[in-house]
Amino acid sequence: MIVVMSHKATEDEIRGVIEKLEENGFKIHLSKGVERTIIGAIGDKTRLGCMNLETLPGVEDIVPILKPYKLASREMKEEGTVIRIGDLEIGGDTLQVMAGPCAVESREQLFAAAEVVKKAGARILRGGAFKPRTSPYSFQGLGEEGLKLLAETREKYGLFIVTEVMDNATLPIVAEYADIVQIGTRNMQNFQLLKELGRIDRPVLLKRGMSATIEEWLMAAEYILASGNPNVILCERGIRSFETYTRNTLDLSAVPIVKNVSHLPVIVDPSHGLGKWKYVIPMSRAAVAAGADGLLVEVHPNPSEALCDGAQSLTPGNFEIMMNEVGRIAEAVGRRV
User: Fold this and answer.
1) What is the pTM of this model?
2) Residue 30 — very low, low, confident or very high, per pLDDT cuts 50/70/90?
3) Of 110, 249, 308, 309, whose CB has the highest number of CB atoms within 10 Å?
4) Is the domain defined by 2-63 classed in CATH 1.10.340.30?
């Protein structure tokens, strides 16, 4: 539920309501706006009747949250969440592009990709050090050596780093190197890992499960939020359907839907959504037009020699074209790159 405090409520009155709720076992999430203070309370709703919250000084209204995802909902927080990493904002007026190779293969490959990404205007470098693969015989990533190369690249090019974590065991070391920790589609409902992500001091990029509904996706985000980490970025990366012409079916309808029901920023991964590089640019344009807060795109210096996902990776030249085109779309919808 949400306790709406009067615009005249004092700090003592706000504190009094919080103490009352905590005494009855509720978890508190405080949001102070310009005109109103909102107290989000998560707990046993059967306790509400005996608390008489409406009688407490400063309380204006009690509003139930009907959706199962409480902390992720617009009911809990009306304004959109803006996640800040250094001088960079995700969810604000600027469209953020995260780009780079599917996997870190070598220093030369990563440096070349970073140079392309930075030159074209993106500020976040993506690259997998630990790679979950369908086949056990496929390239699985360089592990910690890949993380060290990412850190070295960040130092040289001044880019922020997003990279995937596979499990609880590797989370501490990934969080040590990454600016943003990515959760892949296979781990969206790894609830123990999601709980641990709620305890780290890093933004989390949560990809939608390949067969997940929007509600299941938001409930996964709820695990992270409920465990204490408010910095969750949602990523639509395509879902499984009957269509076989593309790798997945990119569900762009999820962007306006999620932004309507949730305050969390939403980005789109057209590379995994389509699986074919020739469709990445038009779907990137469409994602920005639909209201996405950013893009996650695979870029490789030489896609034909990539150790994974070369077929969906943009060349440096095509990435530059994409950045120019999405920049024009962003301007048309009141954003900038």
Assistant:
1) 0.88
2) confident
3) 110
4) no
